[in-house]
Design brief:
Layout (H helix, E strand, L loop, with lengths): L1 E6 L4 H13 L3 E4 L10 H13 L5 E6 L3 H7 L7 E3 L3 H9 L5 E5 L5 H13 L6 H16 L2
Parallel strand pairs: 1-2, 1-3, 3-5, 4-5
Helix pairs in contact: 1-5, 2-3, 4-5
The chain binds D-ribose.
The site of D-ribose has 8 residues, from helix 3.
Amino acid sequence: MKIAIGCDHGGIVLKAAIVDLLQQRGVAVTDMGCAQGESVDYPEYGLKVARAVAQGACDKGIVLCGTGIGISIAANKVKGIRAAVCHDVFTATMCAQHNDANVLAMGGRVLDEKTALRMVEAWLDTPFEGGRHVGRLDKIRAIEDEYFR
Ligand code: RB5
């Protein structure tokens, strides 16, 4: 399992904790930045992570900004990306189970570290349920085919 992770300055503290967790789990992590002390624009880091996942260089991605909102919007502009902003273990579980979210987005100014780490574990450990959800994802792909180049 390879995971790309990226953030802006609003997610930098949480990113370090998540990288530690992933490494403890034996996950290969590609850290796309930003670096501590930088003030950056979140779309650049959402795009880097989304590209790595969409091109197959990484299996999944994690993106972080102050709220998780801006960077998820950016990541979702890449075809094939299903980035979900989550706020608790329930939403992190459901985005894997029902939406097969390949990018988890979280807010460094929203979540405490313990909750964020439990969310990452729930997202990674929850399989996609398939079944009725497959057709719904197919409908999302059809929207992409219509509107994305
Ligand atoms: C940066 O200050 C902040 O706007 C960003 O981290 C994020 O919350 C945007 O959605």
